[in-house]
Amino acid sequence: MSLETEILLKEKKVRKFMKQNKLDAVMLTKFNNFAWFTCGGDNHVVTASDFGVVSIIITKDKKYLVASNIEAGRVSDEEIKGQGFIIKKFNWWEDAEKLKLIKEIVKEGVLGTDDGFAGYSNIDGKFSRLRFQLTSGEIKRYKWLGRKVGRAMGRVCKKIKKGDSEHKVSGLLAKELYKDGITPTVLLVAADERISKYRHPIPTDKKVEKVIMVVVCARKHGLIVSLTRIVHFGPVSAELRKKHNAVAKVDAVFNLSSKPGAGIKDIFKKAQDTYKETGFASEWTLHHQGGSTGYAGREYRGLPDSAEVVLPNQAFAWNPSITGTKCEDTIIVRKNKVEFISQTPGWPMIEVKAGNEKVLRPDILEIQG
Question: H-type helices in the chain, by residue range?
Fold first, then answer.
């Protein structure tokens, strides 16, 4: 699919959404929606925010960029050039002008926004569903990102040495990602006992002695890849081996059950049953299990009572964990297969059977010496 075709397809989707929701215009400011609609454009400045510094407005026959004089030039030149946006610019010190420009565009029409700006209706929850099924162009970008992030993870993990701090490891991975313009949105690193103590271990100065877990969510073109890998110095204990084999089994069930038309609650039940069968029945209660991904770390989380259904060309990042270990990769659900896009070349793998299918899942990397 060409970029031009993808742009037209998304315009058509948005205008259909407008018609269904009785809207005359939609304004997008969150950077995941901006990236989705512009096919990978970036409107962020502050990384610790979900909201970009410019907005786009789509009406029944036009589309606009509303931006301050600080941002208008860069965004129009580097993010949306040639996409047919009409530029509406205001001075950065005149905040009221932004609202004035919006009212000039929308007039007396009904506007839906993804951030509730100026009291307008917030349609973000409904709108996010437009992002769930990926186009062929998005899949191509996503697979590129998965390869880059998986390889970066492998390069860093294979260089970790005893005595390295969690901060050092996270810094090395961030450096590898930024080389390709990839932004880590989540970086978790836990050494030794911190793996068992905390499900979300932000990095500290703690130095690794025996085992370290590295978790990353990384974004480019608005898309996010998630994966987890574990490195162990010396032979893995029998207890950790039992736990990791079990979590790999749960992970295989989650991923291989993610087929078009499958109910999320049914997938979740199969995973719960597998936790129980492997001897770890209550572990699923200690951390969320992941879910749909794409333009958000999790577009929605898998839940026991979820009404969601797996769609063709939808991405998932399941992340089952058992105290002391975890398994996670990003997949795209295709018509006849599940495609793992965040693989780590040269990583030791475990063959796992789930139902009548087999799949290779990441093992723990043992480093001798």
Answer: 3-20, 31-37, 72-78, 95-106, 124-127, 136-157, 166-178, 193-197, 238-256, 264-277
What residue type is assigned to position 74 of the chain? R
Does one domain contain both 342 and 282?
A: yes
- Amino acid letter at 318? W
Q: Are residues 59 and 104 in the same domain?
A: yes
Neighbours of 49 (CB within 10 A): 11
DSSP 252-298: HHHHHT--TT-BHHHHHHHHHHHHHHTT-TTGGGGS--EEEESSSS-
- Read off the pLDDT of residues 85-128 as tens digits, 9 standing for 90 and up: 999 999 999 989 999 999 999 999 999 999 999 999 999 999 99
Total of domains in the chain = 2
The answer on 290 and 207 residing in a single domain is yes
| 327-348 tens-digit pLDDT | 999 999 999 899 999 999 999 9
Q: What are residue 353's phi and psi, to 5 degrees? A: -105, 135
Mean pLDDT of 152-163: 98
Q: Report pLDDT digits (tens) over 267-294.
A: 999 999 999 999 999 999 999 999 999 9
Q: What pLDDT, on a 0 to 100 scale, did the predictor assign at position 369?
A: 66
Task: State which of 131, 152, 167 marks the end of a domain.
Answer: 131
**Dihedral (CA of 332, 337, 338, 341) sign:** negative
**Which CATH number goes with the domain that contains 58?**
3.40.350.10
Non-local (6+) Cβ contacts of 289 within 8 A are: 254, 268, 271, 301, 302, 318, 319, 320
| Of 72, 49, 39, the residue nearest 220 (C-alpha) | 39
CA 164 to chain CA centroid, nearest Å: 28
Q: Evaluate whether 308 touches 133 at the Cβ level (below 8 Å).
A: no
pLDDT tier for residue 11 given thresholds of 50, 70 and 90:
very high
Report the DSSP pairing between strands 211-220 and 357-362. Answer: unpaired
The domain of 247 spans: 136-367
Strand order in the sheet with 51-59: 86-90, 63-68, 51-59, 25-30, 111-113, 121-122
Residues in contact with 205: Cβ distance below 8 Å, sequence separation at least 6, in sequence order? 165, 166, 167
pTM score above 0.90: yes
| 49 and 103 housed in the same domain | yes
